[in-house]
């Protein structure tokens, strides 16, 4: 399985739209998704490879207080949490942030080592995005 993380083309468009328009057309990412896909992330990804149901839907809001933006490191940190009741019975291997537009846009996608999600496991994802 490949691992890694990329900001997608849609993510870059969100950044440009929100950074340069007085009234942006695109919403900021405030939701996350998890899945079982294992292909290497690419900038052209528009969704997770294999999204899974978290708790009646395939996305969930960030933890309260996130994202946190550090203007010194030019980095945004996001934390997302899956409780013992969410996404059970899946071997999670991918994660992504999405916005809340009518058609949600995938901001980024990461593939990671497998996590066998069950009722005895809670998962916190900590995502850091840095502009370089």
Briefly characterize the structure.
The protein is built from one helix and eight strands, in the order βαβββββββ.
Description:
The structure is a single chain. The chain is mainly β. The chain has one domain (4-130). It is 9% helix and 41% strand. The chain contains one helix and eight strands. A five-stranded antiparallel β-sheet has the order 1-7-6-2-3. It has a three-stranded antiparallel β-sheet with strand order 4-5-8, with no helix packed on it. The radius of gyration is 14 Å and the shape is globular.
H/E element string? EHEEEEEEE
N/C terminus separation? 27 Å
Total helical elements: 1
Q: What radius of gyration results from the CA coordinates?
A: 14 Å
Largest sheet: 5 strands, antiparallel
Structural class per helix/strand content? mainly beta
Q: Order of strands across the biggest sheet?
A: 1-7-6-2-3
Principal-axis shape equals globular
Please state roughly what percent of the residues sit in beta strands, choosing from under 5%, 5-15%, 15-25%, 25-35%, 35-45% or over 45%.
Answer: 35-45%
Low-confidence stretches: none
The share of residues in helices is: under 10%
Tally of separate domains: 1
**How many β-strand runs?**
8
Which whole number gives the mean pLDDT? 94
Question: What descriptors fit this protein?
Answer:
132 residues, mainly beta, three-stranded antiparallel beta sheet, globular
Task: Itemize the secondary structure elements and their pairings.
Elements: E1 4-7, H1 9-20, E2 29-35, E3 60-61, E4 68-70, E5 75-82, E6 90-99, E7 106-117, E8 123-130
Antiparallel strand pairs: 1-7, 2-3, 2-6, 4-5, 5-8, 6-7
């Amino acid at each position: 399985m490949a691992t890694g993380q990329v900001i997608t083309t849609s993510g870059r468009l969100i950044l440009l739209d929100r950074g340069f328009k007085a009234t942006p057309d695109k919403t900021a990412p405030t939701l996350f998704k998890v899945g079982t896909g294992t292909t290497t992330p690419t900038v052209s990804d528009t969704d997770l490879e294999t999204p899974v149901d978290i708790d009646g839907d395939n996305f969930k809001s960030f933890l309260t207080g996130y994202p946190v933006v550090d203007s010194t490191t030019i980095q945004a940190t996001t934390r997302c949490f899956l409780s013992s009741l969410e996404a059970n019975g899946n071997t999670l291997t991918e994660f992504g942030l999405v916005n809340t537009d009518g058609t949600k846009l995938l901001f980024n996608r990461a593939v990671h080592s497998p996590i066998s999600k069950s009722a005895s496991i809670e998962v916190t994802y900590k995502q850091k995005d840095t502009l370089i």
